[in-house]
Amino acid sequence: MSLPPEILKKVRLLEISTRKLVNSILTGSYNSAFKGQGMTFSEFREYVPGDDVRTISWTLTARTGKTHIKKYDEERELTLMLVVDVSGSLDFGTGVDFKGEVATHLSALLGFAAQKNGDHVGLLLVSDQVEHFVPAKKGRGHVNRILRDLYYQKPLHRQTKISAAVQYLQGVLKKKAIVFVISDFNDDGYAEALKTMSKKHDVVAIVVDDPAERKLPAMGLVDMRDSETGEVVTVDTSSRSFRDAFEVEMRKRFEIRERELRKAGIDRVDVSTNSDFVAPLAAYFRKRSAGGRR
User: What is the spatial distance between Cα 93 and Cα 210, in angstroms, rounded to a whole number?
Assistant: First the structure.
């Protein structure tokens, strides 16, 4: 597939900036936050005082006349699945980046952190249906391929249905995985699907917000387009009554989101388009490493 030069340039610049952040902030905390799938036998060695007697190999001890134990190492290799919302509501932002761009940057951070630790990384783009799927593989080239797809793949649909992603993943993920769902969660009815998936997989919601969705600034007459339905209306944002009505409606949406995520019972990280989105992710890793959950 031949990609436009501007997309290749974006990917390269994103890789450079992301790798610096991964090396300086995320590597150690990612590694300690997510444990391997279990323990695997490494080698035998002679027993020393303080070793767990349950690890003694009685067969080898009897054969050699010296007490030996079995040494186990953590099976470190993991699968990280990035579920990225590409619906119309992500094409909005009043900060440096739109919500969708923040989602791409977060995907890069997580992807390169996983790659540095030798883990597999996959990608699922979702609107109200599955738009694109990349099976999990290892390596820097594979993470770059995921970033290219994030920039290049254009969604065919504009609405949001988180449960569509969950249903698809339940069919393709055979082993336990870490699943990051990056979205503004402008949807409802997905709590049970996420809760069910979290029984087998480690599911984390990264909630992307923009402050203007909570408090609309007074900008005079503005054409507002519903990013998911395409409907355009002209509104007077200088009207206090309109801004109040807008904020009431948005509060209802946020209340639905809070209810759904609370019912799902999964970990959660909140990020914003107008502030450092790396810090909340790093803080989550540190908290998880210390044994805490959100």
Answer: 6
Phi, psi (rounded to 5 degrees) for 111: -60, -45
CA-to-CA distance for 24 and 244, rounded, in angstroms? 43
How remote is the C-alpha of 37 from its chain's centroid?
19
Q: Where are the domains of the chain?
A: 5-33+76-289, 39-74
User: Which of these, 144, 122, 126, lies nearest to 84 by C-alpha position?
Assistant: 126
What are the residues whose beta carbons fall under 8 Å from the beta carbon of 19, sequence distance 6 or more? Answer: 112
Render 76-132 in DSSP notation, one character per residue.
Answer: ---EEEEEEE-SGGGS--SSSS-HHHHHHHHHHHHHHHHHHTT-EEEEEEESSSEEE
Burial of 262 (0-12, 13-18, 19+ CB in 10 A): exposed
pTM score: 0.81
Full DSSP string of 38-88: -EEEEEEEE--TTS-GGGB-HHHHHHHSS-EEEEEEE----EEEEEEE-SG
What are 205-259's pLDDT values in tens digits? 999 999 988 888 888 888 877 766 778 888 888 899 988 998 999 999 999 999 9
For the domain bounded by 5-33+76-289, which CATH number is listed? 3.40.50.410
- Residues 105 and 54: their CA atoms lie apart, in Å, by 46
